[in-house]
Amino acid sequence: MMKTRHLLYFQDSRHLQPVRDKSVHLAVTSPPYPMIAMWDDVFAGMDPRTGEAIQAGDGKTAFELMHCCLDDVWEELWRVMVDGGIACINIGDATRRTGPDFGLYPNHARVLSSLMAIGFTPLPAILWRKPTNAPTKFMGSGMLPAGAYVTLEHEHILVVRKGSRRKFATDREKRIRRESAIFWEERNEWYSDIWLNVIGTRQGMNAGAERKRSAAFPFEIPFRLISMFSVKGDWVIDPFAGTGTTLKAAAILARNCQGFDLDRSLLEAVFGERDTLPGHANAIAAERLRRHREFAATSGNRRRPLKHFNQPYQVPVVTSQEKDLFFNPVLSAERLSADVLEISYLPVPDSVTAVDMEQSSTGQSDDRRGQLKLF
Ligand SMILES: C[S@@+](CC[C@H](N)C(=O)[O-])C[C@H]1O[C@@H](n2cnc3c(N)ncnc32)[C@H](O)[C@@H]1O
Fold it and tell me: Ligand 1: which residues within 6 Å by Cβ?
């Protein structure tokens, strides 16, 4: 049986000591954002001088000191990542009045400079356009020039790599990579540099007040990034794990994961969700397949029939890269100890079994599956 491990550490991620050098394939994270007021206390806890600078109205010094705290984490990421490993960092810029003046604090630019100084290679980044009611919002002098400011309606997802492109050399590595493929039509949406319509989930651990307090990102963000930049069985890390959104996405996608956070109460949410994880995971897989079938049916009519065939699901696909693609059904999620979760999956079966599993995985009729939201 296939299994993954999910390890939680309640400690400061400026030191990732339990994690071995060169052992992590992918980092997906969203740090506390410097110069956003809700994180002032967290930064003051890491370096009291940040609080003093804010009190003194010295925004530039506070901004730099806060980023020096984050720099320690980026240095640690470099240590723990394998050559060819990728780091995806979700960060928003900040606007703030400190002292007499209002201004922008470009967090994404500062983080990217730091990553490059450490040695990471920047890759094309993603701009996450957040849903907003912006036309009714304004900052500054409103309709009167020249003291009005544009509103920030996006965040950045920086993508960087350690060293050269990852190699998949052995037959086993190549097979796992093929089984980790995503559908062609998903690729077209997910590899775009602008993500629209990625909104917060109402399901499970991200719900309600906890999500607000933790600034959790939508489940779909780590879900896409993990699908795009890692393969099954890899080790993923989130040094600012919060409510464990990255851990949950990794578990559903059959990757191992390690999460760090200072706030134990938030990460406990990961364990609170474990009973519903198999159902949620298998519903997501079923919905991806349903969408693909719909795509294959209409695509074949519009143009030429799809040329290739996915074996496990017995479904036409656009490219030969998708022919072994398979979403391992989650069987169980077990708490092995205070901070360790183990997930068990069904391995890749023969084609007939795969189709049976897909149909039974939600326990719902075709009609009801049609109404399932993916995230
Ligand atoms: C933006 S939130 C991350 C939310 C997370 N992506 C989620 O979906 O729930 C940042 C998190 O970093 C944690 N944090 C801040 N400083 C930290 C540090 N030095 N070490 C570990 N965690 C830290 C905070 O407690 C908070 O949960």
Answer: 12-14, 30-32, 42, 46, 214-217, 240, 242-243, 245, 260-263, 266
